[in-house]
């Protein structure tokens, strides 16, 4: 979405602050919309500098999930949660179980999953206290790590972006910069290497770099994300935290396409137009990174990986459709994607309202 500043009129249906003194849990759950169904979105465990910063993030992320789920064709609304703390030092069974009880207390209005700082094993712990958990381990009938199909969906979106830009979805020989090679970025690098792309990476974590270069010895490493942003690329793929596309970075980007897995890549409203004015095609993040939510949502119906992967393949055509609408209406792709998502939430939400009153 294009909005970057939120207040009390943010449009959210519900925001819940969770505090459990005994375990040290401090969390916020935000439900943006249940027009299409229960609000599905992951839980981010991150050492925010302040509660205000955490609130801003969860509000933006939850709205993004509503648009993402709508564009993915899912009968699910949008929500998100953040746990304030360092997952390496603050995470414990007691804290996760306390958080699970808070999610359970919402009675199914919010369904959680993995995100930055949370993993399949954490969802298994939450599930001991809560029925509204996806992304559990396959041993427990869950979908497992949603990074797998998130990366696959971004790859499909990148192929669609290549076709729109160069007339072919083939990425062979294209120079692709991946900023962040943790969960999703690492898997995306694998798809790109298999496709014959020239891959350049950056990451703040040395262990993530070592893991990627060990798995894919032919890839190139640059010093940091700033160096990657300034590099000569065909495609720039932000796959870490959001807000990477701001006034400064847009001015120095040397790429034809931006297509990555990070949520909320646009730092504020208007950035999408500046990208378009510079001739840079932006694939809306909440469109191309929907593979993970498609994967975990399939768990709600008895998980089948191949069925979920087939549905993720649709991101290729969905991305092409957004680019086509943007071209037809003379607007940036983000605006076109927003219009499609809002239309579905309004039309299907109205239908659900009629059905519940009959």
From TrEMBL:
UniProt: NAD(+) binding residues: 180-185
Any Pfam family the entry gives: ELFV_dehydrog
Any one GO molecular-function label of the UniProt entry: nucleotide binding
InterPro entries linked to this entry: Aminoacid_DH-like_N_sf, Glu/Leu/Phe/Val/Trp_DH, Glu/Leu/Phe/Val/Trp_DH_C, Glu/Leu/Phe/Val/Trp_DH_dimer, Glu/Leu/Phe/Val_DH_AS, Glu/Phe/Leu/Val/Trp_DH_bac/arc, NAD(P)-bd_dom_sf
Record CDD domains: NAD_bind_Leu_Phe_Val_DH
Record keywords: NAD, Nucleotide-binding, Oxidoreductase
Transmembrane segments: none
Biological process, per Gene Ontology: amino acid metabolic process
Domain Glutamate/phenylalanine/leucine/valine/L-tryptophan dehydrogenase C-terminal: 144-353
Domain of life: Bacteria
SMART domains: ELFV_dehydrog
Catalytic residues (UniProt): 80
Protein family per UniProt: Belongs to the Glu/Leu/Phe/Val dehydrogenases family.
Protein name: Valine dehydrogenase (NAD+)
Species of origin: Amycolatopsis arida
């Amino acid at each position: 979405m294009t909005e970057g500043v939120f207040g009390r009129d943010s449009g959210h249906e519900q925001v819940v602050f969770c505090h459990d003194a005994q375990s040290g849990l401090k969390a916020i759950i935000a439900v943006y919309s249940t027009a299409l169904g229960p609000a599905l979105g992951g839980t981010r465990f991150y050492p925010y500098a302040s509660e205000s910063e955490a609130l801003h993030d969860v509000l933006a992320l939850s709205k993004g999930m509503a648009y993402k789920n709508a564009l993915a064709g899912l009968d699910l609304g949008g929500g998100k949660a953040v746990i304030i703390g360092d997952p390496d030092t603050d995470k414990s069974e007691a804290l996760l179980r306390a958080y699970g009880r808070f999610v359970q207390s919402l009675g199914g209005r919010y369904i959680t999953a993995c995100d930055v700082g949370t993993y399949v094993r954490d969802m298994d712990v939450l599930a001991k206290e809560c029925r509204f958990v996806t992304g559990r381990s396959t041993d427990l009938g869950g979908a497992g790590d949603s990074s797998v199909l998130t990366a696959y969906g971004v790859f499909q979106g990148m192929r669609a972006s290549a076709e729109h830009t160069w007339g072919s979805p083939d990425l062979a020989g294209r120079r692709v910069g991946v900023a962040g090679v943790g969960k999703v970025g690492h898997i995306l690098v694998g798809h790109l290497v298999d496709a014959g792309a020239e891959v350049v990476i950056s990451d703040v974590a040395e262990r993530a770099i070592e893991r990627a270069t060990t798995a894919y010895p032919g890839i190139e490493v640059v010093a940091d994300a700033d160096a990657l942003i300034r590099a000569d690329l065909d495609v720039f793929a932000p796959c870490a935290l959001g807000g990477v596309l701001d006034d400064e970075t847009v001015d120095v980007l040397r790429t034809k396409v931006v297509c990555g897995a990070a949520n909320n890549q646009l730092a504020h409203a208007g950035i999408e137009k500046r990208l378009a004015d510079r001739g840079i095609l932006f694939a809306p993040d909440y469109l191309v990174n929907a593979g993970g939510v498609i994967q975990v949502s399939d768990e709600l119906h008895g998980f089948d990986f191949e069925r979920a992967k087939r549905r993720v393949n649709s991101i290729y055509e969905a991305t092409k459709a957004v680019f086509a609408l943007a071209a037809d209406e003379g607007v940036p792709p983000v605006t076109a994607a927003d219009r499609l998502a809002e239309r579905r939430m309004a039309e299907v939400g109205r239908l659900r309202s009629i059905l519940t009153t009959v």
